[in-house]
User: Fold these one by one.
Assistant:
Number 1:
Amino acid sequence: MRRRLLALLTATLLLAALGPAQAIPHRFADLHWGADRSEAHPTLTRLGWRFTRQAAYGDAVYAGTVAGHPARATLKYDLLGRLVAVDLRVTPPADRILAVYRTMRSALTLQYGPPAYTQASFRPPYREGDGREVEALKSQHAILDTVWVDRDALNLDMRSGVQLDVNTVPFGKLEVQQFSLSNDWTEEYQRRAGPAEENF
């Protein structure tokens, strides 16, 4: 999570230096930031997602499909019950993970334009194009990570972003994660993390 927040912050600072541009709200499906549960639930179910359970902090978990593969979307709400982030996890078979990541990356690029930040890095003995990319990802010797952030980054009420990456989960499995967040997620994340400890 810290890597995600650092990447989004870095991208925001870079884009702020580029000057203002037309803001594009980065959101999941047709959900609006700040929507309450009574608005978000029917919107998501109309798109074929099925509510599965209530999670910690009052978040709502839905099951569906993305790119033809099982997916889980967790809608994250703040204390006032307003939608502030969506954590989407797609779990294709390992031999499809790269194709699904690329498909989702292409779709997000088509929707939001070129990413603010992208990384595809491999540590020895692996390298991109060697046919062992999935093995590298499973052994955490590779990073696939792309971030989109509003170019209107100085307008805090409009700022939002999306991060897409590949994660290793227990038992050596891989998933594609798309984390969509509003500007209000930072405050909610800090609330959930609890008070910061001071170092003396």
Note: The two ends are 25 Å apart (CA to CA).
Number 2:
Amino acid sequence: MKNLLNSIKSLINDVKNLGTVSQSLAESVANLESAVTQSKPQLDDLQKKIAEFNFKTQPRLTRIQELQTKMQAEIDRLTQITNQK
């Protein structure tokens, strides 16, 4: 009987602790939602700047890729000529 009473008391304490932890979690989630909402304009601005950067650099990156392809073709050609001798 004592064991059963101790189990019930323990269960009641656990339920109370669960309520406290649940409330703390709800507050943390609310704080997180608030922080995400507040940071959204900065994130949107950052994404816009990244898109602009990618747009501006794409022609240069394409040109670099073209030059690399030409250089590799020339290296391959010269290697082939060297190997034939």
Note: Helices lie at 2-84.
Number 3:
Amino acid sequence: MNCNECNLVEANKASGLCDRCEQIEMTKINDVLYLPALGLIISLLVIPWELYHFTQVIFSYLKHGSFLNSYLIGAMGCLLLNFLITLYASWRFFMRKKGIRKVMITYYIFSLLASLYFTVIPTMLYGIQLKFTDLGNVISGIIGVVIWIPYFLLSNRINVVFTK
């Protein structure tokens, strides 16, 4: 039986691919790495919308003659920094660059800190009740830290995929 991919050489029985095609397949972003890729894509779509919405809130706040407090300034800085970190992490991830471990760890830790900033601080300072979506954001950040940081630290596959 020939290789399922190139049809030139004898295939390995386990995978149906020849050794050369197996090596090529190992360097692709696939299997479990689809989940962090999906998370990065979703973040790249959601964060600009959040920035736009938050900017609208700030302009409305200023329109009524109020001044910006330190929480609002910190929130805008947090959103901008989160967008920049997500943009950089996405670029490194999809270009399969070396050093992705540090970048993704920074991305997951900052995402958790940002979600805590937007949920815990308003609850403590202003007594705002948490919504289900707020809890979902915090849980998502915790899952990112608990599952994906160990994966990026311990997985041998990271060294194979991210080599440029």
Note: The chain has six helices and no strands.
